[in-house]
Automatic annotation (TrEMBL):
<feature type="transmembrane region" description="Helical">
    <location>
        <begin position="88"/>
        <end position="110"/>
    </location>
</feature>
<dbReference type="Pfam" id="PF16344">
    <property type="entry name" value="FecR_C"/>
</dbReference>
<dbReference type="InterPro" id="IPR012373">
    <property type="entry name" value="Ferrdict_sens_TM"/>
</dbReference>
<protein>
    <submittedName>
        <fullName>DUF4974 domain-containing protein</fullName>
    </submittedName>
</protein>
<keyword id="KW-0472">Membrane</keyword>
<dbReference type="GO" id="GO:0016989">
    <property type="term" value="F:sigma factor antagonist activity"/>
</dbReference>
<feature type="domain" description="Protein FecR C-terminal">
    <location>
        <begin position="316"/>
        <end position="385"/>
    </location>
</feature>
<keyword id="KW-0812">Transmembrane</keyword>
<dbReference type="InterPro" id="IPR006860">
    <property type="entry name" value="FecR"/>
</dbReference>
<keyword id="KW-1133">Transmembrane helix</keyword>
<dbReference type="InterPro" id="IPR032508">
    <property type="entry name" value="FecR_C"/>
</dbReference>
<feature type="domain" description="FecR protein">
    <location>
        <begin position="180"/>
        <end position="269"/>
    </location>
</feature>
<dbReference type="Pfam" id="PF04773">
    <property type="entry name" value="FecR"/>
</dbReference>
Length: 389
């Protein structure tokens, strides 16, 4: 079996290179570095883009799973035998470089110029561009407002829009739609902030009245709920109800997702079945994710890295043991394209890596090609994924 400590070290390396490591996790990795000169040498080589690039060019075709296990085995062996075999420093470092290029290839691709042949591809993909700030706000009377970059209010390139229309006696229901290839941030009447990812919808009243605040969402959204203990905040989505008092959390529920993913960043929330008061509530604590199955309505909870889950809000795609099918779904929503696999087996290839959210589409494809032995054939807005010949 793989030692849990070795698995932990691998994950810390990934987060360090992807730029999502916390201060506490960096301190843990630094402590591991100080255990021996071998650890320090391995650490330095794994963070040297030039070294990793040389190793990548030397080893083009690599099994994506076996090197990861090999890295864990070598770290474990080095820890046990570091006093007897000084030469292991070089051996382990070389193996780690290969593994980084396979598992963390995305980040490496960001630290060096894309090769000339890839630069020419960028000019050939004008039909597929990164997403932009855009949304449509529709009232229950059919009034529509198109929102875009003109409403931008921060350097994160996500616009905000606060309704300034007069409040009616009976607050109107509003619907904010973010299309494929879009994103948006809105500030609600109570100062709650909501970030919407591509192909998402938020339904809410223009003002909150009564003893509660209630909205509905489909797609993916990040909530920073303004605290108001007298008026709890409720989020409805696909049969699940989230009760909030004042907190930050991410919720994901796309039509093709089997589960609703609710991830708590801070504060506390309670989850229950929508319309079923007898189902009871499940309390979620920070750093945990609830998976609500849409079919049988069963709920499970697991610990997650919230920085990975919410990376989309910070201008980055971070993939941690995600298969290619899941990755292409997310990319297709953001870059607004359709795709097909030449071989269905490709859907299950697992990746770990990082891609800038606002990078050109050709850059994103180049990173995936370098990481997984793939080729992408692009015609207009249609992409075919195949094995590298």
């Amino acid at each position: 079996m793989i030692d849990e400590h070795d698995e932990r070290i691998c994950r810390l390396f990934f987060k360090r290179i992807a730029g999502i490591i916390s201060d506490r996790e960096q301190a843990e990795l630094d402590a591991w570095r100080q255990e021996s000169e071998a650890h320090e040498a391995l650490y330095e080589r794994m963070l040297d883009p030039a070294y990793l690039e040389r190793e990548y060019k030397r080893r083009r075709t690599i099994d994506c799973e076996r090197p990861r296990l090999d890295m864990q085995r070598r770290i474990r062996a080095e820890r046990m035998r570091r006093q007897r075999i000084p030469r292991l420093i070089v051996t382990t470092a070389a193996a780690a470089a290969v593994i980084l290029l396979v598992i963390f290839g995305g980040r490496i691709g960001l630290q060096r110029p894309i090769p000339t042949e890839t630069e020419s591809v960028v000019a050939e993909l004008p039909a597929i561009r990164p997403g932009v700030t855009q949304a449509t706000l529709t009232s229950e009377t059919g009034e529509r407002i198109t929102l875009g970059a003109d409403e931008a209010s921060n350097s994160a390139r996500i616009a905000s829009y606060t309704l300034k229309t007069p409040v009616h006696e009976t607050p109107r229901q509003l619907c904010l739609d973010v299309p494929r290839g879009g994103e948006f941030r809105i500030v609600l009447e109570d100062s709650t902030e909501v970030w919407l990812n591509a192909e998402s919808r938020l339904t809410y009243p223009e003002s909150f009245s009564g003893s509660e605040r209630r909205v509905a969402v489909t797609g993916e959204a990040y909530f920073k709920v303004a605290r108001d203990e007298a008026r709890p905040f409720y989020v409805e989505t696909d049969g699940q109800l989230v009760k909030v008092y004042g907190t930050e959390f991410n919720i994901r529920s796309y039509a093709e997702d089997r589960d609703i993913y609710t991830t708590l960043v801070s504060g506390s929330i309670a989850l229950s079945r929508l319309g079923d008061a007898r189902s009871g509530e499940l309390l979620l604590t920070p750093g945990h994710q609830a998976l609500f199955n849409k079919n049988d309505e069963a709920t499970s909870v697991k610990e997650v890295d919230t920085q990975v889950v919410t990376s989309w809000r910070h201008g980055r795609f971070v993939f941690e043991e995600q298969n290619l099918e899941q990755i292409m779904r997310d990319l297709s929503r953001w870059y607004d394209f359709d795709y097909a696999f030449e071989d269905d087996a490709l859907r299950q290839i697992v990746f770990m890596g990082s891609i800038p959210r606002y990078s050109e589409f050709a850059t994103a494809l180049a990173i995936l090609e370098k990481s997984g032995g793939l080729t992408f054939q692009v015609e207009g807005t249609h992409v075919v994924i195949a094995r590298a010949r």
